[in-house]
Amino acid sequence: MLTTTRWCRLIVITIILLLTPMVRAADRPPNVVIIFCDDLGYADIGPFGSKTQTPNLDRMAGEGIRFTDFYVGQAVCSASRAALMTGCYPNRVGILGALGPHSKIGISDRELTMAQMFKSAGYATGMVGKWHLGDAPQFLPTRHGFDEWLGLPYSHDMTPKHPATTQKYPELPLMENEKVIRTNPDPAELTTLYTERAVDFIGRNKEHPFFLYLAHNLPHVPLGVSEKFAGKSGRGIYADVIEEIDWSVGQVTKAIDDANLGSTTLIIFMSDNGPWLIYGNHAGSALPLREGKTTTFDGGVREPCIMRWPGRIPAGTVCRELAATMDLLPTFAKLAGADAPRDRIIDGQDIWPLMSGQSGAKTPHDAYFYYWNKHLQAVRSGKWKLHLAHDYDHPDPPGHDGQPGKYAKRSIGLALFDLESDISETNNLADQNPDVVARLQALAEKCRDDLGDSATGRAGRNVRPPGRLEEK
Ligand code: MG
């Protein structure tokens, strides 16, 4: 016969054994999936006001959080990806513009990428899609923290078939790890090809923590859509492409849920920069934001962003605080139990209080700086955005059906906008708010000292060089 004490002990042990798997699941660092589009506009998906049908993104937003003020590093591909991967302004790590084939520079070996951070925490790391941080072997994803990669080393318009440039591009390589598996893939096959590989990666790695970076080439031009989506939207090929990307989000989310990983997986959806408006009906829309890719208006750098992690991120919520792609590395480091680098400046901050919906959580940034290449063109602090005088390219007229239009040079003088009441940056309030202008100018001056500014001839005391190929 068991005594009462023994019964009690048995019950306690049984409860502990029953709870152990739950404790383990809660303790397990989360899987992280980033779905990163290329040149997707702020208003291109349903949760941000598009009429294009995006049921999977609608559902993801309903199950997670939507960030209305989420910024990328710069309004162009390579610079933006450098910020995502390193947690720094692109100017800090020396990657600017869009790197072409045979680039002499790329991501430096001295930078710690997000993938390397995850590796240090014992994660499996996989990448599918466009890299664009250097195409020489030493710059490829497999040399910077990814166990595996299937995709393109740069943009898929950098081919011999480019519609406008006279530049001679080499054959476009589709790569698996460091091998070219074929050349000149059809843009119409890329979204489905990448999605199938992403689902395969999830299936192969479900038993341990993983980081998956799915970087679609679309909806960057040239547009392409698989047969199952061609003409489906009834609203033109751009909308068809968005519907296929939405399908892809559904496939990835389903793979996560089918593997019972929903409660242990953070999924983030966003884009590298705003719409390339010079392509007219083959570009998206950033409305009500002003302008698009290549500019420092918010249409260039403010992106639709959705995050989903059932049980940890409150469902159906909206965050209107400023956050940025460079915040993801330090935030993930905390979630993964890894260290963000401490021996150098990292610009990103932990935004878990915003993501997890902590009441009263505020942006960790005093200011966000808008660069175009090395030119500091604007600064935002709180609701205020100050443009410093600069030129910019405005499509006039825009192109059509895959052919680019022309850019007209325009300029803006010193201008202060209240982004809360004037999201489209139209009503200059500089004269009425000299104190605010002075405060933001002081922030800009501090930034010039730190990161440099080509307009004032400043080099920046805390910039680091990119990786370079050795001269032969
Ligand atoms: Mg882009």
How many helices?
Answer: 11
Strand content: 15-25%
The biggest sheet amounts to:
11 strands, mixed
Number of strands: 19
Rg calc: 23 Å
Under CATH, the homologous superfamily of the largest domain reads Alkaline Phosphatase, subunit A
Give the ordered list of helices and strands.
Answer: HEHEHHEHEEEEHEHEHEEEHHEEEEEEHE
CATH topology of the largest domain: Alkaline Phosphatase, subunit A
Q: Indicate how many domains the architecture comprises.
A: 2
- Dominant shape: globular
Query: Mean pLDDT, nearest integer?
Result: 94
CATH class of the largest domain: Alpha Beta
Termini, distance in Å? 85 Å
What compounds sit in this structure?
Answer: magnesium ion
* CATH architecture classification name of the largest domain: 3-Layer(aba) Sandwich
What is the helical fraction, as a range of percent?
Answer: 25-40%
Tell me what you see in this structure.
The chain is of the alpha/beta class and 472 residues long. It has 2 domains: 28-355, Alkaline Phosphatase, subunit A, CATH 3.40.720.10; 368-468, Arylsulfatase, C-terminal domain, CATH 3.30.1120.10. The protein is 27% helix and 20% strand. The protein contains 11 helices and 19 strands. The strands form 4 sheets. Strands 1, 2, 4, 5, 6, 7, 8, 9, 10, 11 and 12 form an 11-stranded mixed beta sheet that branches. Strands 13-14-15-18 form a 4-stranded antiparallel beta sheet, covered by helices on one side. The model is unreliable at 16-25 (pLDDT under 50). It binds magnesium ion (MG). Magnesium ion is lined by residues 38-39, 77, 220, 272-273.
